[in-house]
Design goal:
The protein is α/β, with parallel strands linked by helices. The protein contains 15 helices and 22 strands. The strands form six sheets. Strands 12-15-16-11-10-18-19 form a seven-stranded mixed beta sheet, with helices on both faces. The chain has a six-stranded mixed beta sheet with strand order 7-6-5-8-9-21, sandwiched between helices. A three-stranded antiparallel beta sheet has the order 3-4-22, with no helix packed on it. It is globular and about 65 Å long. The N and C termini lie far apart (58 Å). 51% of the residues are buried.
């Protein structure tokens, strides 16, 4: 099947691609599996040298790769460049730390020798989204390949050029041709690949619906999976917070990538004593977010990645207004462009509170105190992360255990960092990426006992 990618800024076609046929896909998987049996024998030193080269390729070609990100999904070019640079960082991180993370662990028992070793599984299948088309892939691929696995990627169709760019980067770095391959597939094909006997595990970053489908299919054939799904992170602003600093934190948390991030701040729980001051200062920051060509380095906000995504946000905002929310700014759509929007008087039961807002919309909820903030933060089907803005970080630390989240950030927006594990609970998924925890997801923890 032939399809075209579409530039969300001007809605013009970019490039035509063809889906792989079932026969082509099976042939590629067989080749990636064949390569695995040689790749797993390589040393950490060999793997590290190649992964360092991937980072070098990314940086050398970052202008081209960033241009493709911006063209295919609308991210402002300054953010696209930062994304490619972050990918080089994760390559360097795992090149330098994988051997330590996967070193055999000696365990004292009644044996003369007993230890746990960590062996690769085989072909790992990644199903990745469009919002960070390079970062989501590299944060999976870097640890998977360093562990000795090989990988296949099914990317979102609207960022197909980015998918081929990533494959190209691995080949330019000197990896075996079939250590990392891209498959361009329909959704039905993508689901069937999970059941392929040579695929040993699955990693998905995507929607709840996609997570349910992948977990169900993987479970039906007893294959492990890691799911990094949606989020509705609260930004809690307590009455003792530095308001100006908290506004800056909340603004960045909400509007990075035009609001299209699973870990974006999506519900603002602000203490009643400072609520009006916070909203007023927040609105002044939002006034500066004007649409401009995303290829311009001065542009701060771009379109959403597809028209249907902007239509979905528009529906959620209108549904919240019908239930009593107040529109303070924005609320207008033009094609895939949706204005930076601020809502107040938001309460549970409205789409702006109950659902994930995957776009540039900031809903505000008044809170009486920290107790109510914790209750409302946890009153979500998601559990990815929370930001707490406060003048007393020690007091906040004492209550971290009360949050149903994968991450708690105090006086900073929730963000991913190769040095820290990343992932959520509840309907935000399961498993972890990044840090030591991420590389341990796709290895066999093998007990060895010698009498």
């Amino acid at each position: 099947m032939e399809f075209s990618t579409i530039n969300p800024w001007n809605l013009e076609p970019i490039e035509k691609f063809n889906n792989h046929t079932d026969e082509e896909a099976n042939g590629i998987i067989e080749s990636v599996d064949s390569t695995f049996h040689q790749w797993k024998k390589t040393s950490f030193e060999q793997r590290s040298a190649l992964l360092i080269k991937v980072g070098e390729v990314l940086l050398k070609n970052k202008q081209t790769y960033a241009a493709h990100i911006t063209e295919e999904m609308g991210k402002p070019i300054s953010e696209s460049l930062a994304e490619v640079e972050k990918c080089a960082w994760v390559c360097k991180f795992y090149a330098e730390n994988a051997a330590k993370f996967l070193a055999p662990r000696v365990v004292e028992t009644d044996a003369s020798k007993s230890f746990v070793r960590y062996d690769p599984l085989g072909v790992i299948y990644a199903i990745m989204p469009w919002n960070f088309p390079f970062w989501q892939v590299l944060r999976f691929a870097a640890p998977a390949l360093m562990a000795g696995n090989t990988a296949i990627l099914k990317h979102a169709p609207n960022v197909t050029r980015c998918a081929y760019d990533i494959e190209e980067a691995f080949k330019k770095a000197g990896y075996p041709e079939n250590a990392f391959r891209t498959l361009v597939l329909s959704n039905d094909q993508a689901s069937a690949i999970i059941k392929h006997p040579k695929v040993r595990a699955v990693s998905l970053t995507g929607s709840e619906r996609a997570g349910e489908a992948v977990a169900s299919t993987a479970g039906s054939v007893l294959k492990p999976s890691v799911l990094e799904l949606g989020g509705s992170n609260a930004v809690i602003v307590l009455k003792d917070a530095d308001v100006d600093a908290a506004v800056d934190t909340g603004f960045r948390a909400r509007f990075l990538n035009s609001g299209q991030s699973c870990i974006a701040g999506k519900r603002f729980l602000v203490a009643d004593e400072i609520h009006d001051e916070y909203v007023e200062k927040f609105l002044k920051r939002v006034e500066d977010l004007k649409f401009n060509d995303p290829t311009d380095v001065s542009t701060k906000i771009g379109p959403l990645a597809r028209v249907d995504l902007a239509e979905g946000i528009e529906k959620q905002v209108n549904g919240s207004l019908e239930k009593g929310a107040v529109l303070k700014m924005g609320g207008k759509r033009d094609g895939a462009k949706y204005d930076a929007t601020v809502l107040t008087n938001v309460t549970p039961g409205m789409p702006a509170f109950d659902e994930e807002l995957f776009g540039p919309v900031a809903p505000f909820i008044r809170i009486k105190d920290f107790d109510e903030a914790i209750k409302l933060s946890n009153q979500s089907s998601f559990g990815l992360g929370v930001t707490i803005c406060t003048g007393n970080s020690e007091a906040a630390l004492e209550r971290v255990h009360e949050f149903d989240e994968g991450a708690v950030f105090i006086n900073e927006l929730v963000k991913s960092d190769p040095r820290l594990p990343f992932g959520g609970i509840k309907r935000s998924g399961f498993g972890r990426e990044l840090s030591a925890e991420g590389i341990l997801e796709f290895v066999n923890a093998k007990t060895v006992y010698v009498k």
